[in-house]
Design brief:
The protein is mostly beta strands. Helix content is 11%, strand content 44%.
Amino acid sequence: MCNLVQLKRADAGVTSCAKLPLNLTNMNYTLKTLSMLTGFALFGVLTAQAQDKATLDLLVQKGIISQADEDNVAKSTAVPIVTSRSATAQKISLEGLIQFQYDDLTANDKSGLPAPVSTNQMYFRRVMLGMKADLGNNWGGEIMMDFAATQIADQPKSGLSPQAFPTTASTVGGQQGIQYISQNMFDKIAITKAIPGYGTAEAGYDKTNFIQEELTSTAELPAIERSAATRYFDEYYGSQTAYRLAFAQRRTGLFWNGVVPGVPGTLYYSAALTNGIQSQINFTNVGGLNGIGAWTGAGYKNSVAGLNYDFGMNLGYSGDGNSQNNISSTSVTADHVQVASRNPTYGYNPYIKLAYGNFTLLTEFFQARYTNGRSTIPFTTTNLTSPGITSAAAPFGLNVIPVYKITPDLDAVFRFTYLNTDGRGTDQNGIFWNGPNDNTNSVSGTTGNVTIPAGGSAYGPLFNNVMAFYLGFNYKVSAGVRFSAGYEIAELWNRQTYVATGPGVSNGTSTFNGPRTDMGMIRARLQILF
């Protein structure tokens, strides 16, 4: 046995070490020798890397390999020095991502109220650092952290970054409030066991297989931010009847991703057993709730006449997916009925991916049924002081994302997205990262009082329908370096309208038929991946 300071390329297969005499007589000589050898080795590795880069660039220019192939090779050889304190680890790899971003986002409120404060700032969108360990015998582990993230990650505005500091928010079931450090700093935690030829098992904190845009690596997203429909489904839980769903979300649990051997092409499938509603403060279910989530999916990919195709279906169940732990079936008054806390959710996600020459296309649909997910009265905060009579909502979303590779280094990207919340509602900031929220003249979430303007109605901050168009590009500046820019226009319509029929919130009615809001969003991003 000996301590290892591994000096090797990331794709090296074996590390060896020699026993060195460590008596006092030759200690200085040994240290000098090690220093010289380390220096020469470093110089050799860096020189070899430079030569490899030139060779790879030439192969891309000749059309022998693709740009994606070069990027994968560059990433696999990016860490020439690996230090391990563990004698059990055969290889440890360092990985990271830095995204520097600029946002210029505006909204135009058609209700006659003043326009909301626009967003205009530069910040670090993600600062991610992680490690992978190969322990041998097909066992491994991975930890990935995002040092730009906080618990209330998409609440505006800190003045420096929407992620740098949390905000004060109403606290319901441990979902919001001031959280300076939380699990959201972890992007992934995994203990893995590969079964060659069949798949990989995982015990960890990871994404469930639902919504293909969400499953696309953050560093490889065609558009700068994920779509409004994707974020509505996958961002952390907003409330029982508004904002976001947290359905396609990171969960703690057991995961399996496998393939069926012996089938022409690739027939793949997945399964997972996770927490039913993931807490944003720790790695367990939300306090007081103990439901379980179950996820499965299958797909097939192959190619014919130069056309690569990949299609499949994902299914999901969340035992407490639309629940609050402070609502019980005994909470009943003359004016309204509070629903039981156990509200399961169900969802499905069919998709198809096509690639031909320089063109790729992703089209997917996703829908979930939320028990007690629709309310007859509006809410302006997540504090459900008067939950109202509720019924099931079945929101759905659609993404269409074509990408055309103009040159090996330049991609043109278009995205269309549509969201229908089916009477549940959402707001701008909840689905458009760092977006400004409209003003409201409707309901106070703490007192239940209503202010009715001259027209006889009040408008809430929630909208039933959203449609957005994105156009942008990605340019590979160098291996591991990418610059992206894009413009997105969006329309939110069928705004929640409240009409009072008597004193107090519960004596009125609400529908989604109010004025719309338009948004214009310019984003630019410089990222490095290593």
